[in-house]
């Protein structure tokens, strides 16, 4: 696949973060670019999410509450 098409897919996915592979695939077809939807998904920019806090961070953040037995426990 041409580098320009891969760059276009990446640019479209970054500019439109709510668009998935089916939408970008459809837009490329409108432009006359014949490419498979799975190929579009492969070359889309990955959305990075911040990692969740680890146990060490959790314990440091809640050490005072744990030591004093004030941790709130939610049921349900």
Topology at a glance:
Blueprint: H1 3-15, H2 21-30, H3 37-43, H4 55-67
Helix pairs in contact: 2-3
Structural description of this entry:
With 76 residues, the protein is an all-alpha fold. It has a domain at 1-47. Helix content is 57%, strand content 0%. It has four helices and no strands. The chain has helices at 3-15, 21-30, 37-43, 55-67. The mean pLDDT is 87.
- pLDDT averaged residue by residue: 87
Radius of gyration, CA atoms, in whole angstroms: 22 Å
Overall, the morphology is: rod-shaped
* Helical run tally: 4
Distance between the termini: 51 Å
β-sheet strand percentage = under 5%
Instruction: Find the count of extended strands (DSSP E, 2+ residues).
Output: 0
The helix-and-strand class reads mainly alpha
User: How do the helices and strands follow one another from N- to C-terminus?
Assistant: HHHH
**What share of the residues lie within helices?**
55-70%
Please give the largest β-sheet: none
In a few lines, what is going on in this structure?
The protein is mainly alpha-helical and 76 residues long. It has helices at 3-15, 21-30, 37-43, 55-67.
Summary tags:
mainly alpha; 4 helices; 76 residues; 57% helix; rod-shaped
């Amino acid at each position: 696949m041409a580098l320009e098409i891969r760059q276009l897919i990446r640019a479209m996915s970054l500019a439109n973060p709510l668009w998935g592979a089916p939408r970008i695939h459809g837009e490329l077809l409108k432009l006359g670019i014949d490419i498979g939807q799975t190929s579009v998904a492969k070359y889309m920019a990955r959305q990075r999410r911040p990692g969740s806090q680890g146990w060490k961070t959790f314990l440091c953040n809640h050490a005072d509450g744990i030591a004093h037995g004030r941790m709130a426990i939610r049921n349900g």
